[in-house]
Amino acid sequence: MRIIISLWFCAMLVITTMTEAHPMSDSQRCICIKGVIPFIRPRNILDYQVYPATPSCDRVEIVVLLHKPRRTVCLDPDSSIGQRLRFAKLN
């Protein structure tokens, strides 16, 4: 009986080490789900936040608070102003 339990335990150990971890769901939890805008005039930027890629969202996101109208929008991180904002946040 002990041999059967030992073999079962070894088999379960081998099976669990061979399986890969998968996310619980395929949905992304990104902030910018409605899309991004390619350009914002720098003088219209009141504040901004750069969110790096994470396991729950595989892209870099830049959320900008505008002066007028006072609202938040998502900026394209690959645009020229987006790259400048990303670089400025690093320094």
TrEMBL record:
InterPro entries found in the cross-reference section: Chemokine_CXC, Chemokine_IL8-like_dom, Interleukin_8-like_sf
UniProt GO BP: immune response
Domain Chemokine interleukin-8-like: 27-89
A GO molecular function held by the record: chemokine activity
One Pfam family named in its UniProt record: IL8
Keyword Disulfide bond: no
Origin: domain of life: Eukaryota
UniProt keyword list: Cytokine, Signal
Signal peptide: 1-21
Membrane-spanning ranges: none
GO cellular component terms attached to this protein's record: extracellular space
SMART domains named in the record: SCY
Protein name (record): Chemokine interleukin-8-like domain-containing protein
Originating species: Conger conger
